[in-house]
Design a protein that fits this description.
- This protein has one domain (4-326): TIM Barrel (Alpha-Beta Barrel), CATH 3.20.20.80.
- It is 32% helix and 17% strand.
- The protein is built from ten helices and twelve strands.
- It has an eight-stranded parallel β-barrel.
- Helix 3 (104-120) runs parallel beside helix 4 and helix 9 packs parallel to helix 10 (318-326).
- The longest helix has 18 residues, at 147-164.
Length: 331
Amino acid sequence: MIKYGFNFLWMFVHHGQPPAPVAENELDFLADHGFNFVRIPTDYNFWTKDFDYFHPNEDVFGHIDRYLAACRERGLHMCLNLHRAPGYCINRNDREKHNLWVDEIAQDAFVFLWETFARRYLGISSRELSFDLVNEPADIGQYGLTRDRHEALMRRTIKAIRAIDPQREIVLDGLGGGNLAMPELADAGVVHSGRGYQPMCISHYQAEWWKGHEGLQEPFYPGIEWMGRVWNKETLREFYQPWVDVQNMGAQIHIGEFGCYDKTHNDVALAWFKDLLGLFKDLKWGYSLWNFKGAFGIVEHGRPGTVYDDYKGFKVDRKLLELYLENRVIE
């Protein structure tokens, strides 16, 4: 099954608040339009206090249970992801006490947490649930991350999960923020999850949390220059060739996140989306928009020049929805 859907931020960043409740109407939207995939990025601080990694508040896991139940009721596959894992997050990593890539305690906690989830969801089919181990590992060399250290931890965690649940579908995000393919893990029997944000000068134009946004010209597409390349569909194909190579080694590829921030004009975004999604269709890769509702979403994203349609209370970017639906491969 090729998976198409959205990221939902119900447990995304913990600021002392409880997890958001299941947005049933959002899941109904997916089911109404034939989508089949929901990715849930989570922050371990929802169930962990003061870095006490090995004594999680398992009552909080009840929220995940309810998300999963709501997805299963609608025939949606749920992908459970650690966006903030013990010792690492691509956003504000300075909040961590330990380092996932070099500290034994963080690595032990990471494995323990996935073992906990493996036991909790034993018996749930992989057609309904997958584990995406850690969101967007860092650039090579950042925080002491190397390919060898990453591979060793991922293989250890995969082995630990499969000792409990041999059939669980497991997902690994690419290195370098999800952009770099991992041929060293092509034989691991897992889904390799890439990203659809290149060129960043289009997808992250005026994104204030990204240092690279400073001084960028107003984006256009095709033909914009970025990182020494002129970007068009062929450039996109070249960018993803390392992922194609891993696919040719036997790994399944899925694009776990893609999207465009709300400061890029929607005509430019749609021209880029058309080439990006057309390429993914050619390659028979599923994909998941970041996110459903909000600045990168398909509902009320706010990009200038957007014409919205009303659908059951949602203001939907109809042209983007049509592109999304046209570029699925239905098996």
